[in-house]
């Protein structure tokens, strides 16, 4: 990818959930911004209003989004349909106001690209209504990344009205939809009646790490991200409780990130704490990017027993990072991830929501790891190229018809 003396245009990376340097949001957006800058583009991050000053000195930052109340409803409203409808309406209005007052259309050029992510239907509707104020001949390229369950978008009447309005004004020609899952893209295409292109998930290229396990060290199983039921955390906790203590104490060990467990998973965390199992380390605080990647590099096997109601079609950033780091994985049969594992033999598959089978597979992984791990490391160069930010930016330029390479 070549550099240019003058910017080709400006890429606005919009993530209303980007509020600090912790978690995946910061790392993902920074990778895209760096790759775009390397390709010759000016870059701006559109973030939550609480995003700290001077966090990204090399990229311009505009802090414009407030908290999304509907995404994290208070407990006294979360069980009430009426309460959730009220929060939906209020959150939609706030997001629309943040776009209207925080994102001045006069400073956006025709050659610019706006890349909006982490979208629920209400966010997409607001973006489309905001975009309707452009003249079709002067409109930038507006690119939406779709990564959540597609069914909610089909039932959102306001979203489809906004799309039809843009079609009538021919502004739809400047709108592009992408996903990082072929299956999810097909679902969205049916619902939105738009082409949905596929670009790979993006992870850091410098996270490769050799297996730390040797004949004298326990095999290290790691669970990354937050402790949520749809990620199979409760199943994992039950599986660990079923393991033989001699195996757990001498042959294998676990490190489990569980800083914000949901209600059911909190009970599982407490059971693990009460049992005081040997070599089961629980990380109860959120990790910065450096600490998170260090934990990934230390792993021998990454645990991803995700539930199919969320992950049959959706991608997983942790899974892509594990591949790039040359790690073996345990994941769920029938998930988006299982296709790659079946193709390459880079891990083991387990039935959904089955702690006993998961416990047995962990023991199988302990027995088979030595023969499988070398293949995982051999595939790292290909995964690095595929999941790179440079690959993503090149693909994005092709989709919006920018001849920059």
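^ structure tokens above, recovered residues below v
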């Amino acid at each position: 990818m070549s550099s240019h003396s003058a910017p080709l245009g400006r890429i606005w990376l919009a993530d209303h959930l980007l509020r600090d340097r912790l978690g995946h949001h910061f790392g993902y957006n920074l990778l895209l911004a760096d790759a775009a800058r390397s390709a010759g583009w000016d870059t701006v991050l559109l973030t939550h209003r609480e995003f700290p000053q001077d966090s990204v000195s090399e990229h311009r930052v505009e802090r414009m989004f407030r908290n999304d109340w509907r995404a994290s409803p208070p407990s006294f409203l979360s069980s009430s349909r009426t309460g959730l409808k009220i929060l939906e309406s209020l959150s939609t209005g706030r997001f629309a106001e943040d776009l209207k007052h925080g994102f001045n259309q006069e400073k956006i050029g025709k050659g610019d690209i706006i890349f909006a992510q982490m979208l629920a239907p209400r966010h997409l509707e607001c973006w489309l209504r905001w975009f309707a104020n452009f003249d079709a001949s002067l409109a930038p390229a507006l690119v939406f990344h779709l990564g959540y369950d597609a069914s909610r978008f089909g039932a959102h009447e306001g979203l489809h009205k906004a799309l039809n309005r843009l079609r009538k004004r021919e502004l739809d020609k400047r709108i592009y939809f992408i996903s990082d899952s072929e299956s999810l893209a097909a679902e969205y295409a049916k619902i939105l009646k738009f082409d949905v292109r596929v670009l790979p998930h993006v992870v850091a290229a410098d996270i490769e790490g050799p297996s730390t396990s040797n004949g004298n060290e326990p095999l290290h199983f790691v669970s990354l991200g937050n402790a949520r039921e749809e990620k199979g955390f409760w199943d994992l906790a039950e599986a660990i409780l079923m393991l033989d203590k001699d195996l757990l104490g001498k042959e294998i060990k676990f490190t489990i990130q569980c800083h914000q467990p949901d209600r059911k998973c909190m009970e599982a965390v407490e059971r693990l704490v009460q049992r005081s199992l040997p070599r089961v380390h629980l990380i109860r605080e959120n990790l910065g990017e450096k600490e998170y990647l260090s934990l990934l590099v230390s792993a021998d096997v990454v645990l991803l027993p995700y539930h199919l109601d969320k992950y049959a079609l959706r991608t997983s950033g942790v899974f892509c990072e594990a591949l790039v780091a040359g790690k073996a994985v345990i994941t769920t049969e029938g998930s988006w991830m299982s296709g790659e594992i079946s193709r390459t033999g880079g891990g083991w598959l387990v039935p959904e929501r089955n702690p006993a089978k998961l416990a047995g597979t962990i023991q199988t992984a302990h027995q088979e790891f030595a023969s499988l791990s070398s293949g995982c490391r051999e595939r790292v160069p290909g995964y690095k190229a595929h999941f790179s930010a440079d690959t993503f930016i090149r693909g994005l330029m092709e989709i919006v018809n920018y001849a920059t390479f």
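The mean pLDDT is 91.
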